[in-house]
Amino acid sequence: QGVQAAHYDLRFVKPLDETLLDEVGRRFRHVVTVEDGALRGGVGEAVAAFFNERGYDVRVESLGIGDQWVEHGTPAQLHALCGYDEESILRALLEAGRSSCACGA
């Protein structure tokens, strides 16, 4: 759909894979992180801080569980409720513009 994207698997938050993130910072202007957990203190914040500290001009959009109470439900229902189901991820990538975008999970 006109979106240039790549997928990177960040298996852990600490220590960050700085070599990988340097590559992403040089290659992309928009990064979408998706995490099955809390956004506050999560990988998206760590990635955004890394890019900022290194001086990369990269916009980071993080999808995951916000600072809110989450009801009970199936994983699919909860992913949709919290905005990181398949449709939400696709929408975030498309809304990133037709610019280059990386998706990290």
From TrEMBL:
One Pfam family here: Transketolase_C
Q: Does the keyword Oxidoreductase apply?
A: yes
Q: Where is the Transketolase C-terminal domain?
A: 2-89
Cite a single GO MF annotation: branched-chain 2-oxo acid dehydrogenase activity
Q: Name one GO biological process term.
A: terpenoid biosynthetic process
Q: What class of enzyme is it?
A: oxidoreductase
Which Gene3D superfamilies has this protein been placed in? 3.40.50.920
Q: What is its EC number?
A: 1.2.4.4
Required cofactor(s): Mg(2+)
Q: Which GO terms describe its cellular component?
A: cytosol
UniProt KW keywords: Oxidoreductase, Thiamine pyrophosphate, Transferase
Keyword Cell membrane applies: no
InterPro entries to which the protein is assigned, alphabetical:
Dxylulose-5-P_synthase, Transketo_C/PFOR_II, Transketolase_C
Query: Quaternary form?
Result: Homodimer.
Q: What is this protein called?
A: Protein containing Transketolase
